Amino acid sequence: MKVCILASGSRGNAIWVRSGQSAILVDAGLSLRQLKQRLAAVDEDPGRLKGVIITHEHSDHIRGLPLLLRKIGVPVFATPGTAKVLAERLDLNGFELFDPGEKFEIGPFEVLAFPVSHDAAEPVGLVLEDRRTRLGLATDLGQVTRLVEERLKHCQGLILEMNHDPRLLKEGPYPWEVKQRIQSRFGHLANEKGGKLLARVHHADLDHVWLAHRSEVNNTPALQRAAAAEAVAGRGSEIHLTWQERPAETVEL
Ligand SMILES: [Zn+2]
Ligand SMILES: [Zn+2]
User: Fold this and answer.
1) Ligand whose nearest atom lies closest to the CA of 163
2) Average pLDDT over residues 14-37
C-alpha cells in the first residue's frame, strides 16, 4: 500500500492511497489542477483512481469535488448525511452511499468507516485495508470516543489529527466563537489529545504515523512532533509531518 498525503490542513485535504494498480482518493479538497500536479509530483497516475471517499462536507474536504464529479468517471462514496448536505448546498448528486460500520469494497481495498464527533452532518474516520496492510485515518474530530480508539488499533499506518496547541489557540487572533468551536468536542483535536490517542493505540507493528490537519495559526510542526514523540516514546514508529502546500513524504506501507 502506497500512501501519499497530497495536502492536509484547513485549506484543503486530499489523501491518495494505492494498492497495486488501484488507488483511492480520500477527500477532494484540492482543485483538479492541483490534484493532478501533486499526483505528478509523487509519480502517481490519476488513471488508477477507482473511487473517492468523502469524510464530510466541509469545504476543505470537497472543494475540488464538483469538477472531479464531472470530469472523472469514478464512484464517489459518502455517508447518507454527507450526501444529503452536498445535494442541498451544491446540487451534487450520484453518490454511492455507505453507512458507518458497514464494510464496503473499492478495488482491492476493504473500507470500514466509523463515526467521529465533528460539526458536520455525518462525518467519519476510515480504516482502509488491502490484503497486506491496514491504514487508519481520523483527521477532523473534536474528541476521541472508545469506538475511534477501537477502530484505530492494529493498523500499520495511522493518519491522525493534531490540529492545535491549546495555548497558541488561546492567545491567538481567532474570534472567541471560533476558538470555542475548534476546542469543542465537535471541533478539532489538540496535539496532546492526538498524542494521547496515539499512545493508547500504539503497538509494535505500527510502522508509520502521519500528523495531520495542523493549524497554520495555532500550531507549529515542532509542537506537533514533540507531542507525537512523547506519545511514541521511542517505540519505533516513523513520524511524518504533513503539509498544506505540498505532498508529504510518500511511504510504502
Ligand atoms: Zn478539515
Ligand atoms: Zn471539518
Assistant:
1) 1
2) 98
